[in-house]
Amino acid sequence: MNALFKALSHPVRRRIIEMLRKGPMASGDIAAAFDMSWPTITGHLNALKEAGLVSPERDGASIRYRLEISAVEEALAFLMAMTGTGQREDDREDRS
Amino acid sequence: MNALFKALSHPVRRRIIEMLRKGPMASGDIAAAFDMSWPTITGHLNALKEAGLVSPERDGASIRYRLEISAVEEALAFLMAMTGTGQREDDREDRS
DNA sequence: AGACTAATTAGGAATATTCCTAAATTCAAG
DNA sequence: CTTGAATTTAGGAATATTCCTAATTAGTCT
């Protein structure tokens, strides 16, 4: 859970996640979309992988990264637990 | 949005948020719940305040911090946009 | 195998985060 | 207005993050 939110805490990593929503992408294509060195992007991809947010799979010469929606949903569940969406019946005020 | 996810990226800050779900708490009471110095907790409260996640209000001798649910919902909206919950009609596959 | 392409690892500098103790601030109440 | 309690600010050490360039690995293709 900690690695997850830590991964989400960097703008470049969030943008990578956004890019991958449309489908898996090669490491090089992701790197090309940023004004940063490829190794730097590899580092961010590693952070996302550690967090379970993406998974790599080889595709011929290149490696494609796929977004793991389930990990995003974990973070979502945590936040929903605080907006009251996941609130227990007993805790509610509007009890009749 | 960046300050928001950055604020959420530290376990102590997430735990503070969880504590405040039950209602506003004094800075000292929050600090007492952790095995850390009070100034350290003040620092975390400042980060949460910068992110709009909490707001301080004086209550006699002490200062109570209140959770700002709307800020949590911002983060929630961002994540929902990637799980497909906020997906546009045109993007869906199960179109009939 | 050898050359080429895709991607990662290594090493290191700059910067940011986290946490501490000590000092300052702010307010309440005698 | 002084004392005391609640809280924040200041300053600084230890650690972590972010980013770079150079070197390396892994895989493709002739």
From TrEMBL, chains A, B:
Keyword Transcription attached: yes
GO-annotated molecular function: DNA binding; DNA-binding transcription factor activity
Domain HTH arsR-type residues, every copy: 1-87
UniProt cross-references to InterPro entries, sorted A to Z: ArsR-like_HTH, HTH_ArsR_DNA-bd_dom, HTH_MetalResp_TranReg, WH-like_DNA-bd_sf, WH_DNA-bd_sf
Keyword Cell inner membrane: no
Keywords of this entry: DNA-binding, Transcription, Transcription regulation
A Pfam family hit: HTH_5
PANTHER family per UniProt: TRANSCRIPTIONAL REGULATOR, ARSR FAMILY, TRANSCRIPTIONAL REPRESSOR SDPR
NCBIfam families assigned to the protein according to its UniProt record, in alphabetical order: HTH_metalloreg
Full protein name: DNA-binding transcriptional ArsR family regulator
Species: Brevundimonas lenta
Lineage summary: Bacteria, Pseudomonadati, Pseudomonadota, Alphaproteobacteria, Caulobacterales
